[in-house]
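Narrative of activities, Objective 1.

The group set out to show that a structural description can be obtained from nothing but a protein's sequence at a throughput compatible with the screening campaign. Below is one input-output pair from the validation batch, recorded exactly as produced.
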Amino acid sequence: MSSFAVILPAAGASQRFRDKNYKKPFAPLAGQAVWLHSAERFLARKDVKQLIVVIDDADREEFNRKFGANIAILDLEICSGGAERADSIQNALALVKDDIDFVAVHDAARPCLADLWIDAVFEEAEKSGAAILAIPEVATLKCVSNEKTIIETVSREGLWQAQTPQVFRRELLVKAYAARGSNAATDDAALVEQLGHQVAVVEGSPLNLKLTTRSDLRLAEQVLKVLPRPKTGGLGNPFADNDLWR
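Output recorded for this entry:
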């Protein structure tokens, strides 16, 4: 059985979330923090041997206070974030154990996962060395000027929306980040593509949504009701009250 490490980036500023009390990954959702919904899907798997949560250093004291029990009981590792997402992932990669075969990167603010999707992208990564979840674009796309007028209608043929998890052979992802220079890539596949390595696409689901605004929490709560429960059930902090970060 191949071994996997999972990196959960949660160090972003959450500017569009616009909540004075919570950043996106730490907001309460269906009884536990958003990031725990993401984490528990991976912690139930026998092939996941390491899970690294990346947070802003400014959040570390409060994170440890609220989620210290989770860190200890679930054997999580905490990593300091960087100025950009790519910097955060590169910091986490330095902590991945040498005996790990594959690294999966999954947005901490993407809490609506199903085991079936993880199985599929993990299996494809084992075959090809690099695989991501994505969904085909179905909307009509417009290229718009700074003045908010349409420049052209863009064909959606062949366009897919990238999702996470994105999964890569460890040595390949390390090489991609070592070669990135100043490239502040917004996803990991872009850096692997730059090496000339093909990245396989596994069809995901629109239900695998990424939280951006507070209204997304209401939608995510409904999605969680229709998804199969994780194998281990909830992993919420047993010592925290319902107000997870306030």
